[in-house]
Amino acid sequence: MGDWLRAKLPDRVDVSGMLADGRFVGDGGRVVREDDPYRPHTFVWFHRDLREEPTVPGSLDVLHRDERLVVVDKPPFLSTIPRGRHVAQSVVVRLRDELDLPELSPVHRLDRVTSGVLVLTTERRWRGAYHGLFQAKGVAKTYLALAPYDPALELPVVVRNHLRKHRGELQASVVPDVMPNAETLVELEQVLGRRAVYRLSPRTGRTHQLRVHLAGLGIPIVGDPLYPEILEVEVDDFSTPLQLLAQALAFTDPVEGHERRFVSRRTLPVNAEPVA
Hints:
Blueprint: H1 2-8, H2 15-20, E1 61-65, E2 69-74, H3 91-98, E3 105-106, E4 115-121, H4 124-135, E5 140-148, E6 157-161, E7 163-164, E8 173-174, E9 182-192, E10 195-202, H5 209-216, E11 244-252, E12 259-263
Parallel strand pairs: 4-11
Antiparallel strand pairs: 1-2, 2-4, 3-4, 5-10, 5-11, 6-9, 7-8, 9-10, 11-12
């Protein structure tokens, strides 16, 4: 098992030290030893060492809470779920503790750098019904984006193409001559000199869809570290927020059948708020 763990885990994981400390466990909590015979089709569990995470600036405000749902107004730079180098500084980890809701989980996701409305369910039993709404495209989403103003761009326009993002790659790409799987209605909301606020109504939910679509129109979102070019930005650099706001969500409640609508209290430009 020791040889297998070293082959499976990245070099930064101290497999030998963790084995010596009994930090790998198998089914039933049995400690996995260095010289245990390899056992296929079984699970091995461990807790990795976490880095010290700086506090993400900005408030995580609760817009709504009831028996089934918690709706929050997410600040930029806060991950939706624990992932990669962001564990404690994620919506799920923070709110499970703050609200004493150990089964709290999101029914959709926002990119770490995107701000705005995020919906979570209070208990595991409710997640399927609400998550199904997003999968079935039963949620009307409205975003606002701050980007360069191009008077020659004819708006409104519907952008349709096929987006693909491979695991491990930072950018999503447009695949030509393939049936579209991503669609966004882009409208001009307000002109602000050389920049403008655009209203975005995605009809699909592909990874980085809005960012790719605006960049493809020649108006990349202000503060975007990935599109049109990848910028070298430190993971804990909170100085330049992406100017993309999930402004509103609306849907028919799958449990009670009434209409629900949740609106962000944030406005553009989104600020990197100081820690209180």
